[in-house]
Amino acid sequence: MPTERAENVKPFIVMDILARAGELEKAGESVIHFEVGEPDFDTPESVKEAAIEAIRAGKTHYTHAMGMPELRQAICDHYHKEYGVSVTPDRILVTSGTSPALFLTMMALVEKGEEVIISNPGYACYPNFVEGAGGKAIEVITSAEDGFVFTPDSIKEVISDRTRGILINSPSNPTGVVMSGSDLSRIASFDNLYVISDEIYHGLSYCGRADTILQYTDRAFVVNGFSKLYAMTGWRLGYVIFPSEFSRAMERIHQSFMISANSFVQIAGISALENTEVDIQNMRETYDKRRRFMIDGLKAIGLKIHREPTGAFYIFADIRHISTDSYAEAYNILEKARVGVTPGIDFGSGGEGFLRFSYATSMDNIKEGLDRLAKYFAER
Ligand code: PMP
């Protein structure tokens, strides 16, 4: 029998949709994928070259447990250049993706029974990370009418003497919301708490840059990675920037559980940070065009978008006037219209009655998918 801990890890419902979409495709059907949360772009050429060169040069061994010093320095330079904040390499741990960075952060930060405040809807795996470390996820429902903003006031209401931290994600999956500097500043000012800031969608905001929490406090764990901005999901590379008093604990945990992140992938990461400005600019502009096209398209079909999403590559649309069972609706859309979408319930109870549409797919696919959805909803 698996442990209770393992049984408590909630599944990602979108995987059911993906599996069914795969069956349909295997049977020769065409399916448009708006459910997938990963870039459709190829990894920039300079990054691939750097990895190939590194393998040829024999960079295929363990690295320092905290990560290669050159990559950690490049991450410091990146945060300085983008946000003007000063971070030193001894506050950085390089991991095999943002997911392990979240896992290790919770292990180092959260004592059994301590609480971490998260937003609902929010990234589906967050409660698993908190609860996997023995903590308790305290959910704050954000509302569509208020633009799904995770406000300092709503957070303040649920702070207790067991609260250890506040987990924020701006730009957000699934809502595309970018938090304002003033909200970040207020969240950073809550006494004795740590902010865990998932900045994996940084660089993908279309109406002004997203601020980092480090502009407002060093009492924070910033988790970030290369999956989204650099189209590197399969490379598995991420990092966490932490307060210096956690340095030795982070090192010990990583040494013991993971040893180090992949060596040649770390070298590719340096290239991603230093040589991809043009690639990133192109990807961002393309996402933005698709974003605007899809928002208009979904509205024309009759779905409600209360406030325009300005970051990541998702639109979280309201279908409550059509259905309050997002799982059944997502399935129906796949069976009848051959379009994959993610049910809002995947992101918590606050996401029920919504669907998440990803625009990390080509403009041709977006046009075709919207045509299919228009027919489907016209008959609904
Ligand atoms: N945080 C958020 C908000 C995400 O959407 C994802 C990927 N879906 C992750 C973390 C994990 O990313 P990685 O591939 O770096 O593990």
Q: Overall mean pLDDT score? A: 97
Oligomeric state of this protein: single chain
Mind describing the biggest β-sheet? 7 strands, mixed
| Unique ligands | 4'-deoxy-4'-aminopyridoxal-5'-phosphate
Radius of gyration: 21 Å
Would you identify the regions where 5 or more consecutive residues have pLDDT less than 50? none
Helix content: 40-55%
Shape: globular
The proportion of strand residues reads 5-15%
Quick gist of this model?
With 380 residues, the chain is α/β, with parallel strands linked by helices. It is built from 13 helices and twelve strands.
What do these coordinates show?
This protein is α/β, with parallel strands linked by helices. Helix content is 41%, strand content 14%. Helix 4 (69-83) runs parallel beside helix 10 (263-275) and helix 11 (277-301) runs parallel beside helix 13. It is globular. The mean pLDDT is 97. The protein binds 4'-deoxy-4'-aminopyridoxal-5'-phosphate. Residues 37, 97-99, 123, 169, 173, 198, 200, 225, 227, 233, 238 line the site of 4'-deoxy-4'-aminopyridoxal-5'-phosphate. 4'-deoxy-4'-aminopyridoxal-5'-phosphate is lined by residues 37, 97-99, 123, 169, 173, 198, 200, 225, 227, 233, 238.
